[in-house]
Specification:
single chain; 140 residues; mainly alpha
Length: 140
């Protein structure tokens, strides 16, 4: 009789074909989580992608120019200093101004959008200090 049960299972329809699609797929929402619509949107303007990568593109061109003028050691030294400055941060629940990073990039004398409208008292990252430090250290 076990051979007969196996033949019945072989002829049956797989359960994956019974998934519900559309606005009422509640069980799929529980399995996969919410979908982020923001990630699926295309850039609304041709310059939006270029603007997002502005600092990266500017760093690449500055490193290439520095390499052509002073040699290979100059951009390597600057990249090492930038990496060291990025690693030195305050605790996760405190606002960091990144003065050293701005100085290395030459942005310390420029006034930008984030200098005026980036008020730390209105920051969304304020939370319980102990929980945030434990999360940063990977203890949670």
């Amino acid at each position: 009789d076990s051979r007969g049960a196996a033949s019945l299972l072989k002829d049956s329809i797989p359960i994956t074909q019974f998934t519900v699609s559309g606005p009422f797929e509640g069980h799929e929402l529980l399995r996969r989580g919410f979908t982020c619509v923001k990630n699926e949107l295309l850039p609304s303007h041709p310059l939006e992608l270029s603007e997002k990568n502005f600092q990266l593109n500017q760093d690449k061109s500055n490193f290439a120019m520095l390499r052509n003028i002073q040699g290979l050691h100059a951009p390597l030294k600057l990249q090492m200093e930038l990496r060291a400055v990025k690693q030195a941060q305050r605790l996760p629940f405190l606002h960091s101004s990144n003065v050293a990073l701005d100085t290395l990039r030459g942005n310390d004398e420029c006034i930008g959008f984030e200098d005026i409208l980036n008020d730390p008292s209105q920051s969304e990252v304020m939370g319980e200090p102990h929980t945030m430090v434990e999360y940063k250290l990977g203890l949670l």
